[in-house]
Write a structure and sequence with these properties.
Number of strands of chain B: 3
Oligomer: heterodimer
Helix content of chain A: over 70%
Order of helices and strands of chain B: EHHHEEHHHHHHHHHHHHHHHH
Order of helices and strands of chain A: EHHEEHHHHHHHHHHHHHHHH
Strand order of the largest sheet of chain B: 1-2-3
Largest interface: A-B, 33 and 31 residues
Strand content of chain B: under 5%
Distance between the termini of chain A: 32 Å
Number of helices of chain B: 19
Chain lengths: 494, 491
């Protein structure tokens, strides 16, 4: 076992189990015929994955910055490719995010998906396996394998179960992400040629020549910037979001986008630190453009789903801003924003999906004036929309506060520009909230939140307030890893 | 003497539970309003419970959770917090009764939402008053903004939407655009957001960059737009589209006082009198708000709509509080802070009267109120008393304010401030006295057949509270000692 891995304290390979449990569920579904049984099986498989990942969380050693629950098996010996798994403070949070969001996302599809239920659930479960796999892989080839494995089911989700414009949206999504992946592959092979191994931790902080780092950063950067998505690579996102079924949007927003920012923090910062420093001003400017531009575009939206989609561009800008301040505040803020955005925007997409199931429209006007008709729905919508503009007391405020502190510590001008974005966010979210609550006077027959919907919204709502008021337990998990990262970067910068 | 205790959570928790109970019992108006009244009384009781500790020079603090090093969700009870916590919880009791009369007589819609948001706004006010640092303060300050928004737009008509929109744009725009960067700049420069124990020192280290301290300070003043300092005052007159009890409690006490309280808190406990004195920022603030004091009064002179005139009077009077604190001497600070109490009682009386006139006679314009004093002797009597307090006539409460403010201005030998205070008193008289004259001495010019034999007052749940608050204004003019001594514990 290499020195960067800590032995798995459990008697079974826990990360492998977490990753492949959903896939096992998918295999079982292959043999089922009844739609209801398929749905239940998919839900149970994702619940099992959640249960196992909770064990991870329980035994995670906060005081260590190394990769924990390590597993290593030789895979393709001739190229020194290994099956290496392990999680540190950064990835364990993202694994948790994935396993928590997935069962709720599956619950949300109960009535929304009526055709090809079997194929749908199989796609979802393969997605889950791939997403967890990405965050646990410590070998480039394995990472790349999972990274690409996600593409097909996501494409199918949009192309088969999507909205009227699904062909355009799914193709655009596919081409954008695939072209990003090509750059990623080039970077991975270049690193292999230098290092002679595909192990990710062994490639970190090796002091490559600046020129090498420059090109590697560019290749990584394009791949991840498309995934995040950063301005100007963001145009696939609104298209994909609007056409995808609710669960597709939830996975996209909550987890897929995080793979881009995860890539930046895991690969760019620790493998090519000097190039990261060099590109930081550019990245910060692009992040600020994303924050302000994304917000301004939101102001003009009449489609709820598009509004939430564009707000993702702005929110992810805050994450990038946090990462490229290279400070502990920035890292903590970026990580928190990744989780917060996953829950808050995921929650908003679920809510948009709920109302879409009832009114068959995503237009704000068609769904306006719900305050009196569906008060419980309105409560959730209110909570998640104030969270989306970082209202104090909600999760996003804590994340945004950390990022803004980091920004002001780095450069006060940058801070003030980010503040503009925060103001715009308040404007478009409050405007949306007002219209949904009060926009129309007429009485319509719209059902309020059902028990099933309440069950999956409530935990997300609890998370919003929990992180907003008591964020320390979450920060503690990742702090050691992030402190270590900040210190390593500090060393390199001299 | 600092005590660690979770007591400050008590009033906040009680209001929170009250809001939930109101929401749960939304289908039964009697039970719903019972919770509102009971909740207000218990809240006041729990605030009063903390008075003895502070009276004897103690401070209560409590940290609920840590957000980041130096940033926490923490609470603090000292003389300053009790002033605001006391007035907002005490007047909530009167407002709860008054609400019942007003909302039922006018058969307002969406009453459950109204009562829930009302309680939630008080929750914010309690939170602001007992906050122990800028993080907590900011949190509850925003809670007030968001929950008063449905109250301002309560009527859900065009006027209501326009007023509510202006309200939220001003308040959230300034708090996100100015207050948030001010808070972060404070943290970046000092490494903490907690309030200092000592009002002289503040938390800024000696040798902080003067330029950035001034920028941060200016951002704070602009960020707390609830204080309605010109030019960020315009939301307040627009917010008068709200039902009158909202204007009364929230826009005379809870919301606007949250603004001036927050500014006072930041001036005293974040910056400290020392740094404000040395940098001259205190005097700059005093001159700056003097403008609001005078212009607010002049605009009030021109308003015929009673609530609009009261709104501009509020704009003007709020700046007295900041002026007092900005003088940075003991008399000035006492005069400013005690005006939180005095203005609270007097102005809520005036708004209660405006609402009572509207409920009983459907009148809004002062020019339509000729001789109305005959029909509403109690209401207009209370109005006269409270307006004397606003002008600063002895022995009503407002006189105490003016006395201390003048003392404070004379202590620093500032003739400009003295002139501002004198001129503004004249202006106050100029727009308040005519109302009383119209009500009692111009009956002959009226189209309405008012007569003392034909008394038509608003329901007792409205008249009794306003008479009591007027009498308390009078009482506080005779016995101001309690609050003067309480504030004295700050020094």
């Amino acid at each position: 076992m290499p020195s960067y891995l800590i032995m798995n304290p459990f008697g079974f390979p826990i990360l492998t189990t977490t990753i492949f449990l959903p896939l096992v569920g998918a295999l079982v579904i292959l043999f089922l015929r009844n739609d209801r049984a398929i749905k239940i099986t998919a839900f149970i498989a994702s619940l099992f994955a959640l249960g196992v990942s909770l064990l991870l969380f329980a035994r995670f050693d906060y005081s260590s910055a190394l990769f924990q629950f390590g597993e290593m098996t030789s895979w393709i010996a001739s190229y020194n490719i290994n099956y290496i798994l392990g999680v540190d403070g950064i990835s364990v949070m993202l694994v948790m995010l994935t396993t928590i969001i997935s069962p709720f996302a599956i619950l949300s599809t109960w009535n929304a998906i009526q055709i090809r239920v079997k194929e749908f659930m199989i796609s979802i479960l393969i997605m889950e396996t791939a997403m967890i796999g990405v965050f646990c892989s410590l070998d480039f080839v394995l990472f790349y394998f999972f990274w690409e494995a996600m593409l097909i089911p996501m494409y199918l989700l949009i192309a088969v179960w999507g909205g009227p414009n699904k062909d355009y949206a799914s193709l655009k999504f596919f081409i954008y992400t695939l072209s990003g992946s090509v750059f990623l592959l080039v970077a991975i092979i270049a690193l292999y040629l230098v290092n002679g191994t595909f192990s990710i931790p062994e490639a970190m902080f090796k002091g490559y020549s600046f020129q090498f780092q420059f090109w590697i950063f560019l290749a990584f950067g394009i791949a991840f910037a498309i995934k995040v998505p950063m301005f100007p690579f963001h145009t696939w996102l609104p298209a994909a979001h609007t056409e995808a079924p609710t669960v597709g949007s939830v996975f996209l927003a909550s987890i897929l986008l995080k793979m881009g920012t995860y890539g930046f923090i895991r690969f760019c910062l620790s493998i090519v630190p000097q190039a990261s420093f060099y590109f930081a001003p550019l990245m910060i400017i692009l992040a600020l453009i994303g924050i302000i531009y994304g917000g301004l575009v939101c102001l003009g939206q009449t489609d709820m789903k598009k509004l939430v989609a564009y707000s993702s561009v702005a929110h992810m800008g805050f994450v990038i801003l946090g990462i490229f301040t290279f400070s502990l505040y920035g890292f903590v803020g970026a990580m928190l924003q990744m989780l917060n955005h996953g829950v808050t925007t995921g929650g908003l997409f679920l809510l948009v999906g709920m109302v879409y199931e009832r009114t068959h429209s995503r237009q704000i006007y068609d769904n306006a004036g719900l305050g009196k008709i569906t008060p419980v729905y309105m409560f959730f919508f209110g909570l998640f929309s104030v969270s989306a503009f970082a209202f104090p007391g909600t999760n996003s405020f804590v994340g945004e506060l950390y990022v803004l502190i980091a920004a002001f510590l780095t450069n006060r001008i940058v801070g003030f520009f980010a503040i503009i974005g925060a103001v715009v966010a308040a404007a478009y979210m409050l405007n949306l909230l007002k219209k949904i609550a009060w926009g129309r006077e007429d009485k319509r027959d719209i059902q309020d939140v059902s028990l099933r919907e309440f069950i999956y919204m409530l935990p997300l709502a609890v998370f919003v307030l929990w992180v907003g008021l008591f964020p320390r337990p979450f920060i503690n998990v990742m702090e050691t890893t992030l402190v270590n990262l900040a210190m390593q970067l500090e060393k390199v910068s001299h | 003497m600092v005590t660690q205790s979770a007591l400050p959570l008590l009033p906040i928790g009680i209001v929170f539970i009250t809001a939930i109970l109101i929401m749960v019992n939304r289908s039964n108006p009697n039970i719903r309003e019972f919770w509102s009244v009971l909740g207000s009384m218990l809240t006041f009781g729990s605030v009063a419970f903390m008075v003895p500790t502070v009276w004897h020079g103690g401070t209560i603090t409590y940290t609920l959770s840590t957000i980041a090093p130096g940033i926490s969700l923490n609470f603090r009870v000292d003389a300053l917090s009790l002033i605001f916590g006391f007035i907002s919880s005490f007047l909530w009791i009167f407002a709860s009764f008054y609400n019942i009369g007003y909302m039922r007589t006018l058969k307002e819609h969406a009453q459950s939402r109204y009562y829930t948001c009302f309680a939630a706004a008080i929750l914010g006010a309690q939170g602001v008053s007992f906050s122990g640092g800028l993080f907590t303060l900011y949190l509850f300050y925003e809670v007030i903004s968001i929950f008063t928004y449905p109250l301002v737009g309560h009527h859900q008509d065009e006027e209501g939407y326009a007023g509510a929109k202006k309200y939220i744009v001003y308040l959230v725009g300034t708090s996100k655009g100015f207050l948030l960067p001010a808070v972060i700049l404070t943290y970046v420069m000092t490494g903490t957001l907690d309030f200092a124990d000592n009002i002289q020192t503040g938390i800024f280290p000696r040798g902080s960059s003067n330029l950035w301290v001034s920028i941060t300070y200016a951002l704070f003043i602009a960020g707390f737009a609830k204080a309605a300092i010109m030019p960020l005052h315009n939301w307040l007159p627009s917010a008068m589209v709200a039902p009158t009890p909202v204007s009364a409690l929230l826009h005379a006490v809870a919301v606007v006082k949250a603004g001036v309280f927050s500014i006072s808190r930041v001036m005293l406990s974040t910056f400290g009198t020392g740094i404000l004195q040395d940098s001259g920022l205190g005097l700059v603030t005093a001159y700056f708000v003097s403008f609001t004091i005078l212009v607010g009064s002049i605009v009030a002179l021109t308003k015929d709509d009673l609530k609009a005139r009261l709104a501009y009077s509020t704009v003007s009077q709020l700046s007295y509080i900041i002026l007092g604190v900005a003088l940075l001497d003991n008399s000035g600070i006492v005069g400013g802070l005690i005006h939180i109490i005095n203005h609270g009682f007097s102005k809520i009386t005036l708004f209660f009267c405006a609402g009572a006139i509207f409920v009983a006679h459907n009148k809004r314009k002062i020019s339509d109120m000729k001789g109305i004093g005959y029909a509403m002797p109690f209401t207009m009597g209370a109005f006269a008393l409270a307006s004397l307090s606003m002008i600063g006539v002895p022995p009503v409460a407002g006189f105490v304010t003016k006395w201390y403010l003048l003392n404070g201005a004379l202590e620093i030998n500032n003739i400009i401030i003295v002139s501002v205070l004198m001129l503004s008193s004249l202006l106050n008289a100029g727009y308040f006295v005519p109302i009383t004259i119209t009500a009692f001495f111009q009956g002959k010019g009226s189209k309405e057949p008012w007569s003392p034999r034909d008394i038509k007052e608003a329901p007792p749940t409205m008249v009794v509270p306003l008479v009591i608050t007027a009498l308390i204004s009078l009482f506080l003019g005779f016995y101001p000692d309690f609050f003067v001594r309480l504030i004295g514990n700050l020094f």
